């Protein structure tokens, strides 16, 4: 494949989130949708039509057919989490690069099987945590890394919650124990855990302790939960995730000299611009009636939505492997695995009666 040729994507399944990523593939300058497969060709045909797939897109009535197509370079896998290990492994064995929807696995043991197959077969792996690719994320990181303005990280808190309606809470795959058994922890908690690790330069905490009184549905799937994380140097973090609370998408990072806040880190309130807030050297006025200085708002513009930038970066990596013989980028598998380890630790702490669980890489 020539370096300038677009990466040809196959889509496994007709999930709702795949509509967003399909649009992203269409908008990315270095990617195209080559094939889509579902458990029935009728469903795949209707899905391709409804979502404006190119007329050249091949329509298949099985996932296997997509993986067997020699004109598919990479696959996007938005299937239920319980199916990830099967289809991501098979994709890697078929030499297809893997863009895997989160949560990436039910546990780190499953994820390790996926990552080992990707490494063995020389294919790129990336999880589909879109906010990682927004230019705002890099700008926020610049502030967190500035020892003169932010100082040393002392604490972080993240919330990702949204209110599921009756239909969602009864029928969505995220609340089905046989499809996405991690529930809100895997879906929303993944984002908050990733955010906390991001603030800590992906240094894993020493221990994770689940907060008491998580909420479950009748099938035993988590609908809301939280946890505290602690590091050897005294850093602490907490998160809350829920299907039962009004939408919140916050990161608050507190440093020895400054603070950072962002209120829409998962999906920016606007597609082309995203704000964040910083303050440094805060203190009370003489009568303690106000605080100075006031936080500064920073607006970060982007010509392409964050999901398009994700597809573009993934496709750049794939193109470099195919066109230049480069090795797969190991950053993304490493970050994925660390996130999964913390997810596993939260779940283990809940199951052990909210005892601290040590995190070992």
Automatic annotation (TrEMBL):
Superkingdom as given in the UniProt entry: Eukaryota
Domain Gfo/Idh/MocA-like oxidoreductase N-terminal: 7-126
One GO molecular-function entry: nucleotide binding
Classification via Gene3D superfamilies: Dihydrodipicolinate Reductase, domain 2, NAD(P)-binding Rossmann-like Domain
Sequence ranges assigned to domain GFO/IDH/MocA-like oxidoreductase in this UniProt record: 145-260
Signal sequence extent: none
Pfam families: GFO_IDH_MocA, GFO_IDH_MocA_C3
Family according to the record: Belongs to the Gfo/Idh/MocA family.
The protein, known as: Gfo/Idh/MocA-like oxidoreductase N-terminal domain-containing protein
Organism (species): Solanum commersonii (Commerson's wild potato)
């Amino acid at each position: 494949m020539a370096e300038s040729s677009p990466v040809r994507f196959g889509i496994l399944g007709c999930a709702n989130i795949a509509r967003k990523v399909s649009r992203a593939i269409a908008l990315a300058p270095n990617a195209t949708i080559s094939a889509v497969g579902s458990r029935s060709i009728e469903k795949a045909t209707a899905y391709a039509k409804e979502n404006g797939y190119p007329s050249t897109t091949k329509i298949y009535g099985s996932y296997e057919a997509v993986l067997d197509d020699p004109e598919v370079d990479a696959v996007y896998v938005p299937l239920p989490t319980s199916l990830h290990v099967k289809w991501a492994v098979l994709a890697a064995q078929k030499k297809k690069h893997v863009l895997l929807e989160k949560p990436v696995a039910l546990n780190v043991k499953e994820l390790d099987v996926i990552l080992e197959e990707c490494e063995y077969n020389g294919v790129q792996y990336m999880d589909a945590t879109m906010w990682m690719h927004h230019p705002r994320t890099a700008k926020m990181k610049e502030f967190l890394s500035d020892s003169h303005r932010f100082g040393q990280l002392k604490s972080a808190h993240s919330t990702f919650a949204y209110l599921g309606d009756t239909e969602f809470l009864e029928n969505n795959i995220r609340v089905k124990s046989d499809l996405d058994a991690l529930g809100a922890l895997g879906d929303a908690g993944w984002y908050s855990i990733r955010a906390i690790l991001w603030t800590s330069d992906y240094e894993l905490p020493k221990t994770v302790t689940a907060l008491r009184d998580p909420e479950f549905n009748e099938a035993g799937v988590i609908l809301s939960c939280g946890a505290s994380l602690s590091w050897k140097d005294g850093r602490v973090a907490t998160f809350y995730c829920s299907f039962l609370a009004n939408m919140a998408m916050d990161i608050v990072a507190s440093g020895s000299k400054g603070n950072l806040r962002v209120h829409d880190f998962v999906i920016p309130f606007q597609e082309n611009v995203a704000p964040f807030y910083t303050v440094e050297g805060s203190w009370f006025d003489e009568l303690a009636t106000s605080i100075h200085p006031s936080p500064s708002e920073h607006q970060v513009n982007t010509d392409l939505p964050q999901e398009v930038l994700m597809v573009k970066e993934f496709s750049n990596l794939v193109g470099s492997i195919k066109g230049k013989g480069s090795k797969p980028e190991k950053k993304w598998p490493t970050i994925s695995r660390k996130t999964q380890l913390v997810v596993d630790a939260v779940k283990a702490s809940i199951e052990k009666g909210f005892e601290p669980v040590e995190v070992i890489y």
